[in-house]
Amino acid sequence: MQHDTASKGLPFMKMHGLGNDFVVIDQRDGDAVVDAALARALGDRHRGVGFDQLAVLTAPKDADIALTFFNADGSVSGACGNATRCIAQYEMTRLGRDALTLKTERGVLSAVQVADGLVGVNMGQPMLDWADVPLAQEMDTLALPIDGAPTATGMGNPHCTFFVDDAETVDLEALGPLFEHHELFPERTNVQFASLIGENHLRMRVWERGVGVTLASGSSSCATAVAAARKGLTGRQVAIDLDGGRIDIDWREDGVWMTGPTAHVFSGHLTPTFLANI
């Protein structure tokens, strides 16, 4: 284990947004070095804690907090919208504030407390050019040359969104990994299947790169809302029903705002024995 906490343990928090779950490690006052090996060990739902993403907090100079994300397979994730909301809620409550800035690979994001205990985060502008998603070669991101003509969107992570008649009937576990590793996506991709179930109302299911099927995904929800608006299926304000519940997306002039619930489930301590055996 490449950090000094193996002899004394390591505190963490478990959170989730609509069932999309996270382990959060606060490095602002500690000496832990979180790496891919620790992420994989923690992400094991049988031998570790289990999560969809691991979020690591540090103290930047140009924002209130900085976030780095790991997937359950140890790979780095550029964005995690639900974790960003959860951590923003925790920090706003701790500090007695109703707004916060969070630095991620996407840049400095704004978070606000809204009505009924919900939290909104501006996930930034979508990346719509093929090179920014990124894709392997130049093409129109609105309709990729893949069966089903999915839409590609960058939201800090690459996203591939299929619009289908009924998202419930899609074999997500078979198709998700197939498209995650498609040759058009050199960094792999998150995969979404969405269907229109009402005016400005979508049903969506998610396969996350490096994770698998998840109950919810914030960046995937943003990407799907952007894709639906670009295709003329919806307006820019969309409600999305995920396996874990509902999230609201609003593609504004200043970026894509995502609003939904958060939960801090418990706080715990990784034992020295666990850490020493990674």
User: How much beta, percentage-wise?
Assistant: 35-45%
Distance between the termini: 6 Å
- Calculate the mean pLDDT score and round it: 94
As for the number of domains, it is 2
Query: What proportion of the residues is helical, as a percent range?
Result: 10-25%
How many strand units?
17
- CATH architecture designation of the largest domain: Roll
Question: What attributes characterize this protein structure?
Answer:
17 strands; globular; 278 residues; 18% helix; Diaminopimelate Epimerase, Chain A, domain 1
Q: What features would you describe in this structure?
A:
- By secondary structure, this protein is of the alpha+beta class.
- It folds into two domains: 4-123 and 262-276, Diaminopimelate Epimerase, Chain A, domain 1, CATH 3.10.310; 151-253, Diaminopimelate Epimerase, Chain A, domain 1.
- The protein has helices at 36-43, 81-95, 172-180, 218-230, 272-276; strands at residues 10-17, 20-26, 53-58, 65-71, 76-77, 99-104, 107-113, 119-122, 151-154, 158-163, 190-198, 201-208, 212-214, 237-242, 245-252, 255-260, 263-270.
- It has a 17-stranded mixed beta sheet that branches.
What is the gist of this entry?
With 278 residues, the chain is of the alpha+beta class. It has helices spanning 36-43, 81-95, 172-180, 218-230, 272-276, and strands at 10-17, 20-26, 53-58, 65-71, 76-77, 99-104, 107-113, 119-122, 151-154, 158-163, 190-198, 201-208, 212-214, 237-242, 245-252, 255-260, 263-270.
